[in-house]
């Protein structure tokens, strides 16, 4: 048994979790700051950092209590070291460093994006690298190869906006407010993408770009003017969602073998593992279309909704497997290194 206590404070969720052996969640308490930021239409970094600091002590007690463990039972502490909002990261890193000293436990800093991939390991305890990952969050849209635990090779990423950021901005244009992604997802369910088609971004290679699509939505709304009623907005939400989802899956498709190739190879070769994770992996259309695109070509794992968005269990799991960095260096520019 190796118990890891994880702390996640990179953006607008405060979370503390205890994970056994990198795979079994004993507790994963999450406080969402949605109500705090709603009136501002987006995350206010200063308020977010302060709220993390105020909530962490209680969430820490709750996580230990729910898991039924004492601080002395913990083997490893893990905090998100980046990428994220720097003030928010500092709170988690500071609390983690304090606990490490008080409890005399080792502390490791985890890359948030690795964390999202490890959410898949919590979903399927038998899942092992090598795998192909599509990490789609508020700040990243990365296609990565993970040859072994703790090693990631970025094959493609966005040239401008991330998928989640694009959803959030589109939601704001459609008057849906914050948090935009889930609201746009709900509205899209009542719309028809074919009635207001938007272009599907398509760059060569494995890169993504969503800023042109965002501009297309802006112009369409401007052209519609007062004619943009509830149904038109729902149709536009559906069209925007379709373009983002198909653009993401087009690149994933390029990395997968065809069904014919899989059938020819069938003789005992390990099936390719594909993980789609991060907040945008909660999107209804992405979940449905990803299953269709990957079927018969690879094995797809998408974490359940509560493990797609930010949580500390994924940070604890990543620390157990790949956290070799014993420092808590906070660098907001951190990508995958
Ligand atoms: O991974 P995450 O919780 O935080 C970051 O690491 O950024 O991802 C948050 C992003 C936000 O942009 C949010 O709008 C988006 O994920 N998101 C969604 C959905 N749920 C969350 N986007 C589309 N559809 C959803 N259902
Ligand atoms: Zn995240």
Write the layout of secondary structure elements.
Blueprint: E1 3-8, E2 13-20, E3 24-32, H1 34-38, H2 45-67, E4 76-82, H3 86-103, E5 107-111, H4 112-123, E6 131-136, E7 141-148, E8 151-156, H5 163-173, H6 180-188, H7 211-224, H8 230-255, H9 259-265, E9 273-277, H10 284-294, E10 299-301, H11 305-308, H12 312-322
Parallel strand pairs: 1-4, 4-5, 6-9, 9-10
Antiparallel strand pairs: 1-2, 2-3, 6-7, 7-8
Helix pairs in contact: 2-3, 4-12, 5-6, 5-7, 5-8, 6-8, 8-10
The structure holds 5'-O-[(R)-(carboxyoxy)(hydroxy)phosphoryl]adenosine and zinc ion.
Classify the helix fraction into a percent range. 40-55%
Helical stretch tally: 12
Radius of gyration: 20 Å
The separation of the N and C termini measures 28 Å
Low-confidence stretches: 324-334
Shape: globular
How many individual β-strands? Answer: 10
The ligands bound in this entry are:
5'-O-[(R)-(carboxyoxy)(hydroxy)phosphoryl]adenosine, zinc ion
Helices and strands, in N-to-C order? EEEHHEHEHEEEHHHHHEHEHH
User: Which structural category do the helix and sheet elements fall into?
Assistant: alpha/beta
Please describe the biggest sheet, giving its number of strands, its sense, and whether it closes into a barrel. Answer: 5 strands, mixed
Beta-strand percentage range:
15-25%
Record the strand order, biggest sheet: 3-2-1-4-5
Mean pLDDT: 93
